[in-house]
Amino acid sequence: MTTKEKLYEGKAKIIYPTDDERVYLTYYKDSATAFNAQKKGTITDKGKVNCAIASALLTYLEKKGIPTHFIEKVSEREMLVKAVKIIPLEVVIRNIAAGSLCRETGLPEGQILPQPLVEFYLKDDALQDPLLTPDRLALLNIATNEQIKQLQTLAKTINQHLIEFFKSCQITLVDFKLEFGLDHQNNILLADEISPDTCRLWDTQEQDKEKRVMDKDRFRKDLGEVESAYQKVLTRVLNQIEKL
Ligand code: C5P
């Protein structure tokens, strides 16, 4: 399949159209950013690791009945996906308090939430991805009420599947971000990636607050051993996929 000029380049990936208008090729880069690109760096082989983790998790979710954009992994850093128009919302699901939830509400890190929290952020770098209230979400007209309800239901269902999957990898799913897109028939598909870049993942067997971190917080907080943490997640995910 031949690819054309890139369609979009994000912080961690490049999207190319292909000669089939219903298919895009996603290329995973090693570059890493945090705090809305104020902090920039490279995580060696992150592209390969995240491409492999995202491929495995999207395949797993698809088998559980979640409609995703994933078609197939075609190289170490590339996957073919269904062409979708991304809904400009970042859907964050939280099971345990961490990150901006703690910063903005004062909840202590590590507090288990009584029920998963689903939040919508506007996907807009220039505006620094603000958290939206339900009224602002309705005002912006980004999605219909029906679509918002669908996104909430999908997010909660995906969360349940991922909690269960990561638990079997001895990993606690603290929180994560999802993006969704619309295909040619206006169906909502889970898009983008699921990886240590987009999830907070804590090693279930590790009590130490720094050592347990297996995700991008190692890069954000300069905790070191970023590459090996990502690699560990990959190994555990692939081992578990083999057992299924
Ligand atoms: O920063 P915050 O605590 O709001 O992040 C919640 C979750 O969403 C984290 O797992 C983080 O990695 C993810 N996230 C993301 N991309 C963003 C913002 C948050 O993957 N732009």
Provide structural commentary.
It is a single chain. With 244 residues, the protein is of the alpha+beta class. The chain has 2 domains: 8-82, Phosphorylase Kinase, domain 1 (2-Layer Sandwich); 85-226, D-amino Acid Aminotransferase, Chain A, domain 1, CATH 3.30.470. The protein is built from 6 helices and 13 strands. It has helices at residues 46-63, 99-105, 134-140, 145-168, 217-220, 226-243; strands at 8-9, 13-17, 23-28, 31-34, 39-42, 70-73, 78-82, 85-86, 89-96, 112-122, 171-182, 188-191, 199-203. Strands 8, 9, 10, 11, 12 and 13 form a 6-stranded antiparallel β-sheet that branches. Strands 1-2-3-7-6 form a 5-stranded antiparallel β-sheet, with helices on one face. A two-stranded antiparallel ribbon has the order 4-5. The chain is globular. It binds cytidine-5'-monophosphate. Cytidine-5'-monophosphate binds next to strand 9, helix 2, strand 11 and strand 13. Pathway: Purine metabolism; IMP biosynthesis via de novo pathway; 5-amino-1-(5-phospho-D-ribosyl)imidazole-4-carboxamide from 5-amino-1-(5-phospho-D-ribosyl)imidazole-4-carboxylate: step 1/2. InterPro entries: SAICAR_synt/ADE2_N (IPR028923), SAICAR_synt_PurC (IPR033934), SAICAR_synth (IPR001636), SAICAR_synthetase (IPR050089), SAICAR_synthetase_CS (IPR018236). It catalyses: 5-amino-1-(5-phospho-D-ribosyl)imidazole-4-carboxylate + L-aspartate + ATP = (2S)-2-[5-amino-1-(5-phospho-beta-D-ribosyl)imidazole-4-carboxamido]succinate + ADP + phosphate + 2 H(+).
List strands and helices in order, with pairings:
Elements: E1 8-9, E2 13-17, E3 23-28, E4 31-34, E5 39-42, H1 46-63, E6 70-73, E7 78-82, E8 85-86, E9 89-96, H2 99-105, E10 112-122, H3 134-140, H4 145-168, E11 171-182, E12 188-191, E13 199-203, H5 217-220, H6 226-243
Antiparallel strand pairs: 1-2, 2-3, 3-7, 4-5, 6-7, 8-11, 9-10, 9-11, 11-12, 11-13
Helix pairs in contact: 1-6
